[in-house]
Amino acid sequence: MRVSRAQAEENRETVINVASRLFREHGFDGIGLKDLMKGAGLTQGGFYKQFSSKDDLAAQASRRALESATRRWSTAAATSSDPLEAVMEFYLSPGHLGEKADGCPLVALGSDAARQNAEVRRPFEDGIRAHFEVLDELMGDARSSNPSGKAMAILSLMVGAVTLSRIMEDESLSQGILDAAAGEVRRIAHGDDVA
Q1: What is this structure's pTM?
Q2: How many beta carbons lie within 10 A of that of residue 1, not counting itself?
Q3: Is the four-CA dihedral 174, 131, 113, 111 of positive or negative sign?
C-alpha cells in the first residue's frame, strides 16, 4: 500500500523523534534499526525510503534532541527573575538526572558522539555552541562569535556533574556532586575568576 507524501513526512518525523529518545536511552550502538522502527510503530522496510543510513538518522535525531535541550533551557530561563539560576536548578536536579531518554543529549551521548563520524558529531558541535550562546546571554555577556570562558566552564561543569551523578549509586554522593557543581556555577557566573 502506497503512503501519501503527508503520511510519509509524518512517519519520518515520528522516527526522528523516537530515535532521539531511544538513542539517548541506549546509545547509538545500543539499538538497531529494527527496534528503532518498531519504537516508531513502523516496519524496518520503510527506513531507507526516509534516511540514507543509520548515521543520517543519528545526525537528525541528535539535532532534534539538542534543539529540544536548548528550548528547555530557554523555557526554564523565561520563568524566573534569575534566568541562569533557573536553568542551573533545572539542569542540576534529581528530576533531570532521571530523564535518561528525554534529558540532555550531551550527557547521554557526548562520549558516544565523539566516536562517531563528522555527520553525527556536527549537530553536537552546533548544539554546544547554542548552549554557550544561551549561557552568555543569561550572564549578560553576549558575544558575536566566540563564547566566553565562563560559558564554556559552566556548560562543562554542568554536563560533567550530571554525567557523574548518573553513575553514582550512592544517592547522597550523587546529590553532593550536583550541589557542588551548582555552587561552582554560581561562583563562576558571579565572579571574575574565569577568563
Answers
A1: 0.89
A2: 2
A3: negative
